[in-house]
From TrEMBL:
Subcellular location: Cytoplasm
GO biological process: response to stress
InterPro entries with a match to the protein in the record: HTH_MarR-typ, MarR/SlyA-like, Transc_reg_Sar_Rot_HTH, WH-like_DNA-bd_sf, WH_DNA-bd_sf
Main location: cytoplasm
Taxonomic path: Bacteria, Bacillati, Actinomycetota, Actinomycetes, Pseudonocardiales
Protein name (database record): MarR family transcriptional regulator
């Protein structure tokens, strides 16, 4: 079957390049995170808690772009593993606060080398990694604004 010039090519699509890169990076993290007993989404939760300390579930979900249906099971598994504690606030029963346990805080030391290892595997220097991160954040913001009707 002949393909005409107007047919979109898979290898020319930004969406496919992003998808393939995301899968490759996640696969790179998998064995490193297995050593920590974490999945990639759990690692993201832990990164946020290590950076910010205890957080409300809504705050955590917003930071990670995760809805409560996705975040709640992650937190439940992290709590079962003894890495976090979820507590309802006394002044607002609807609000749940997530706190690192001692084991969760100590796990940070094991996780410290991961970004460097992954960065090395990406074959980009520090400036290129920073530029890539800035570009991806800008792309995410632009697409989010467009989807919510704020873009042009």
């Amino acid at each position: 079957m002949a393909v005409d010039a107007a047919t979109p090519r898979l290898d020319e699509q930004v969406c496919f390049a992003l998808h393939a890169a995301s899968r490759a990076v996640t696969a790179l993290y998998r064995p490193l995170l297995d050593d920590l007993g974490l999945t990639y989404p759990q690692y993201l939760v832990m990164l946020d808690l290590w950076e910010h300390g205890d957080r409300g579930v809504k705050e955590l979900g917003k930071a990670l772009s995760l809805d409560s249906g996705t975040l709640s099971p992650l937190l439940k598994r992290l709590e079962k593993a003894g890495l976090v504690r979820r507590e309802r606030r006394g002044d607002d029963e609807r609000s749940v606060r997530v706190t690192l346990t001692g084991d969760g805080d100590r796990l940070r030391d094991k996780a410290v080398p991961l970004p460097g290892l992954v960065g090395d595997a990406m074959g980009l220097d520090a400036a290129q990694l920073d530029e890539l991160r800035v570009t991806l954040n800008r792309l995410t913001d632009s697409v989010t604004r467009y989807r919510t009707g704020l873009g042009s």
